[in-house]
Amino acid sequence: MREIKFRAWDKHLKLIRKVSYIDFDGKEIMFYADDFEENEDCPSLDIVRDFEEINIMQYTGLKDANGVEIYEGDIVEFSDLGEEGHEYIEAYDIQNVAKVEFYMGRWQLTNFADDSDTEVINGMNSEWNNEEWYDFMSKELTVIGNIFENRNLLSEVK
User: Fold this and answer.
1) CA 56, CA 22: separation in Å to the nearest integer?
2) What is the DSSP string of 113-147?
3) How does strand 97-103 pair with strand 54-63?
4) What is the DSSP letter of 36?
5) What are the start-end ranges of the E strands in the chain?
6) 50, 27 in Cβ contact below 8 A?
7) What is the pTM of this model?
8) What number is the average pLDDT over the span 144-156?
9) Nearest 10 degrees: Cα torsion 44, 26, 20, 48
C-alpha cells in the first residue's frame, strides 16, 4: 500500500516543507516545527498557512532510481532510447527532463517533447500498462529539482 504524504511550497519563506496536517474545510495547512530552523520569522512552533500562501504537492508513492521520493512538481531526468538505440537527446536534441504531474488518472511526465515520437511518450500515452509505467518511473527517473526552486531546469527543454 502506498503512503499518502504531502509537502508544500511556502510562498512566504520560499521553501519546501513537510506537511503535518491539512484542514480542507478551514483551507489551511500545518508544517512540522522541527522542519524549520528557529529565527524571528519562524519560531519553533508549528507553522500554519492558508491555502493561498502555499502550493501543495502530493507524494506519488514512488522513489526514483536513487531512492529519493518523487512528488508532484518534481523535475526529473531520464534516458529515452529511440529505435536505433540512441538517446533522443543525441539524435534530435531533445532534453530528457520533465515535470511530474497527476494527469488523466495517473502520474505523468509533462513539459517534455510533447510532439515527438519517443519511447517514453508512447509508453506513457498508452503502450505501457500502469505497472510498466510505475516500474519505469521508479527505476529510470532521477529527481533533479522541483518547479519552485529549480524552474530554470525546465526552461532548458527544447
Assistant:
1) 10
2) -TTS--HHHHIIIIIS-HHHHHHHHHHH-EEEEET
3) unpaired
4) S
5) 6-10, 15-23, 28-31, 47-50, 54-63, 69-71, 74-77, 97-103, 106-110, 142-146
6) yes
7) 0.77
8) 85
9) -20
Question: Which pLDDT does position 84 carry in this prediction?
Answer: 52
Dist CA 121 CA 115 (whole Å): 9
Instruction: Identify which of 79, 70, 67, 71 has the alpha carbon closest to the alpha carbon of residue 112.
Output: 79
Q: Are 76 and 98 in contact (CB under 8 A)?
A: yes
- Residue 92: the pLDDT is 55
Spatial separation of the C-alpha atoms in residues 3 and 41, rounded to whole Å: 32
Q: In what order do the strands lie in the sheet with 6-10?
A: 47-50, 28-31, 15-23, 6-10, 54-63, 69-71
